[in-house]
Design a protein that fits this description.
The structure is a homodimer of 148-residue chains. The first copy, chain A, has 148 residues and is an alpha+beta fold. Chain A has a 5-stranded mixed sheet, with helices on both faces. Chain A has helices at 13-21, 27-30, 35-46, 74-77, 97-111, 126-134, and strands at 4-7, 50-57, 60-70, 79-88, 114-122, 138-147. Chain A has one domain: Gcn5-related N-acetyltransferase (GNAT) (Aminopeptidase). Chain A contains 6 helices and 6 strands, in the order βαααββαβαβαβ. At the A-B interface, helix 1, helix 3, strand 3, helix 4 and strand 4 of A face helix 1, helix 3, strand 3, helix 4 and strand 4 of B. Chains A, B: Residues 3-148 form the N-acetyltransferase domain. Chains A, B: GO terms for molecular function: acyltransferase activity, transferring groups other than amino-acyl groups. Chains A, B: Keywords: Acyltransferase, Transferase. Chains A, B: InterPro entries: Acyl_CoA_acyltransferase, Bact_Acetyltransf, GNAT_dom. Chains A, B: It comes from Promicromonospora sukumoe.
Chain lengths: 148, 148
């Protein structure tokens, strides 16, 4: 299988929402594809610090992730890469697509001067935690969320 | 005590680095104030999605935090607020400065259209975890980091 990584275009958005929603934890909170997702997409596209990346195989979008490049003062002025909304098509799992996506994310981070990658994963996702640990991630932090 | 919240200026930077470094977990990785911090500060100042905020009391900087406003597709196209590098002067703790800072962070997030605040805290910081839970945060995620 050959994977192509590219920035998402508007025509990918319905498929992206489908991938993000096809998940026990995220299904209810993702919503049905519509105007709020399009507004979110436009905001991501307009931000110089964000990239929405899709993985394409044989012309089909099989994975998605959002990358955010964050400048900072701590850690000796280091920029960091935040990875969010990582999804691989359920029908395509077990072929290493997720690992290749994360390697691409890290390459993009390095290209943007980031010296650290970070992400959070819901405590209900033990398989995802194993996946990230296998990639070398240290499970060093607690993650907190608050509706505003 | 009256707190003033404002965006940091370059003249605050040495004090900010001092606050960030004055911490058992972060001391070694923050580094000594110098050119990398200045470069990080300039990058934060240049980013439309980031704000470095200081809390000032009687003309003295007593707290710092970095806010990042992140657009997105998941959670029905919601933008989220990421809070990083939260520090209160050790000599000024116990007066509620941290809580007021976080309330200011949430106000800034809402003003930027964010419907969710998120942050991570090192597993070595149980007091910080209690602080965030007391603010209403749900400790729902595992946090992962990887050097790039």
């Amino acid at each position: 299988m050959t994977l192509i990584f590219r920035e998402a275009v508007r025509g990918d958005l319905e498929r992206i929402v489908e991938l993000i929603a096809d998940d026990a934890v995220a299904a209810t909170r993702t919503g049905t594809y519509g105007a709020p997702h399009l507004a979110g997409f436009e905001a991501v596209a307009a931000s110089p610090d964000n990239e929405l990346v899709v993985a394409e195989s044989d012309g089909e979008v099989v994975g998605v992730m959002q990358l955010t490049f964050i400048p900072g003062i701590s850690r000796n002025g280091a920029a960091r890469l935040l990875v969010e909304a990582v999804r691989v098509d359920k029908a395509q799992r077990g072929q290493g697509i997720g690992r290749l996506m994360m390697e691409h994310a890290h390459e993009r981070g390095r290209a943007r001067g980031c010296v650290l990658a970070q992400l959070t994963s819901d405590k209900q996702r033990p398989e995802a935690h194993r996946f990230y640990r296998n990639l070398g991630y240290e499970q060093s932090h607690e993650g907190f969320k608050l509706p505003l």
